[in-house]
Specification:
229 residues, mainly alpha, Urease accessory protein UreF, 10 helices, 0% strand, globular
Length: 229
C-alpha cells in the first residue's frame, strides 16, 4: 500500500484544527485574561458564557465570515477579493495586541505552508503582496484541503475553541473536567456560528465589540500576564 499520497481532506482539517499547529495560537487569550483580571470571568460558567459570546458576536460575524469568503477566493485565484478581505481584517484590529495576533499568526501559518510545500508559486506570490493576516492564511490552508466549506469552518472554529478553553484552564484556573464541559458547550454552538458566517455578506460582516477592545487595551498594561492578548 502506497504511503506517498497526500493526507485526505479530513486529515488536513484535523491537522489545521490541532493546538499543536506551530503558529502560536496558544499564546493568546483574546481578551479572556483581561476579563478574568476585571472579575468578569471567575468560574467555568462565566468562562463558558464569555467564550460562547465571543464565538457568536465576533468570530462568526467577523473572522469566520472572512474565511467563508476567502476560501473560494483562494480556490479561484481572485487576488483583488483576497486583498479587500485582508484589508478589512487589518482595519478591524482595534488594539496593538489584536493586530499583533493577526500578523504573527498569519506569518507563522504561511511559513508552515511554505515549509510543507503545499501552496503553489502563484499563491505564495499573492501572499508576498498581501501579506496575509491569520484569517487569510488559514483560508489558504483550508482551501488546499478541498473539503466542503461548512466542514472547513467547523474545523477552524473548533481549533479556536480548544485554544480558548486551554487559556481558561490556565488563567481562571479550571480543572480538566470543567474544561471538557466548556468545550462540549462550544462544540454545540459551533454549527450555528458556522451557519451565520456562511450567510454573512460584505454589508453585514462586522467586528464591533467595544468591551473586547477595552479589555484588550487594558491587557496591554496589565501588571501580571500569561498571554500575549
Amino acid at each position: 500500500m502506497s504511503t506517498d499520497s497526500a493526507p485526505s481532506g479530513l486529515l488536513q482539517l484535523i491537522w489545521l484544527a490541532s493546538p499543536a499547529l506551530p503558529i502560536g495560537g496558544f499564546s493568546y487569550s483574546e481578551g479572556l485574561e483581561a476579563a478574568i483580571e476585571q472579575g468578569l470571568v471567575h468560574n467555568v460558567q462565566s468562562a463558558t458564557d464569555w467564550v460562547v459570546d465571543h464565538l457568536h458576536l465576533t468570530q462568526s460575524r467577523g473572522d469566520m465570515a472572512v474565511l467563508a469568503q476567502a476560501i473560494p477566493a483562494w480556490q479561484c485565484g481572485d487576488t483583488a477579493r483576497l486583498q479587500a478581505l485582508n484589508d478589512w481584517v487589518m482595519a478591524t484590529r482595534e488594539t496593538a495586541e489584536m493586530r499583533l495576533q493577526a500578523e504573527q499568526m498569519g506569518r507563522s501559518l504561511l511559513d508552515w505552508l511554505r515549509n510543507l510545500q503545499q501552496a503553489s508559486d502563484a499563491q505564495l506570490n499573492c501572499c508576498a503582496q498581501l501579506p496575509p493576516t491569520y484569517p487569510l492564511a488559514m483560508a489558504l490552508a483550508l482551501s488546499l484541503a478541498q473539503a466542503p466549506l461548512a466542514q472547513a469552518l467547523q474545523a477552524c472554529a473548533f481549533g479556536w475553541a480548544e485554544n480558548m478553553t486551554q487559556a481558561a484552564l490556565k488563567a481562571v484556573p479550571l480543572g480538566q473536567s470543567a474544561g471538557q464541559r466548556m468545550l462540549a458547550r462550544l462544540a454545540r454552538e459551533i454549527p450555528l456560528a458556522v451557519q451565520t458566517a456562511m450567510q454573512t455578506n460584505d454589508e453585514d460582516r462586522q467586528a464591533f465589540n467595544p468591551m473586547l477592545a477595552i479589555l484588550s487595551a487594558r491587557h496591554e498594561t496589565q501588571y501580571s500576564r500569561i498571554f500575549r492578548s
